[in-house]
Amino acid sequence: MNITKENRQMWLDLYRAAEVYRDLKPWEWMYDSDLFGVQDPVTGKIGYCCVLGNLGEHLALNVYMGAEGLNSYYELLEFGEDDPMMAGLRQSCISVSFEDREILSDKDRKFIKDLGLKYRGSGQWVMARDYAPSWLPWYINEEQAAFLVHALQQAVAVSIRAEENPELLQFDEEQVLVRVPRQTPEGLIWEDQIMDMPDADVSIAIPPDAALMKKAKKLKKQQGAMFLCLTYAPGPTREDAQSRPFFPMIGLVMDKQSGMIVAHEIFSPDDIEAKLQHWLVWILENIYECRPQQIILSSGIAADMLDDIADELDIDLMVNPEEPVFEDALEMMFRFMG
């Protein structure tokens, strides 16, 4: 976020649009299941909007961009209750939320001051963030801000109509109302279109590497189970002082009898697909010297990630987050990492 002479008005438009949305309080009659779309006038991409705050806990507008973003929304619905940290850190959206002053960073507060804006009171401060899987929520860029102006304005228009007509957004899972812009000499005109939902595959299975799978299949199949925990580190890290922080994913393999960690690895967002399956095959070769009949996992998200690999290796997956060996290992890890 950077204010220049050329973009100052756009940033002001964003905060003013957010204030109108905040003061309308659409979460009082809208739910996070009331999805609707807004098409970006520049790129043509559709942002799927979700009004948050009906339970009074987190007041925001989340905009999930395209099929990838929509997939992360469905992933949160499927896994969020069982593993909220894993599901939450895999979100892909841009968001405007309304916070207490102390939640904002110094950069946020300076940005607001430089725009000549003032906020007072709990839940009144506007904060915009970009959410990407495994990455720390970060400041939005100019392109995202420009689209959020439209998304907020159309969210207000749709919310007012939805209050008057509760059936406005009542479609099956295959269709959605989308606000579509049309350029005219007088400016943009927004119209309703009922569109098919994009194909959003909730599965996040890592594609198996053929050479690795061939290598692992040479191992003898034996009775027994591997206990594997995949989770995010409790705090973010970064490559350097200028880069965006991320939450590393940590893999732990435990011995059931002793509770000891027999193997561990850390994965960055950029290398998890390749590195995770290489690490898994290394464990089978060097620690187990076989393909166990079963892998017991700490979360449904972990199972979904390994689903295709396990199927290729003829290994059953079982999810048991309450397994004591997981709880002990995670407690030890979180205590060690602070």
Description:
This protein starts with 7 loop residues before the first helix and ends with a helix. The strands form two sheets. The chain has a seven-stranded mixed sheet. A five-stranded mixed sheet has the order 10-9-8-11-12, with helices on both faces. A hairpin with a 6-residue loop joins strand 1 (36-39) and strand 2 (46-52). Helix 6 (210-216) packs parallel to helix 7. It is built from nine helices and twelve strands. The longest helix has 23 residues, at 142-164. The protein is 35% helix and 26% strand.
What is the SS-derived class? alpha+beta
Oligomeric state of the chains? single chain
**Rounded average pLDDT:** 91
Q: Outline the low-pLDDT stretches.
A: none
Head-to-tail CA distance between termini: 31 Å
What is the global morphology? Answer: elongated
Radius of gyration computed on alpha carbons: 23 Å
Number of helices: 9
- Beta-strand content estimate: 25-35%
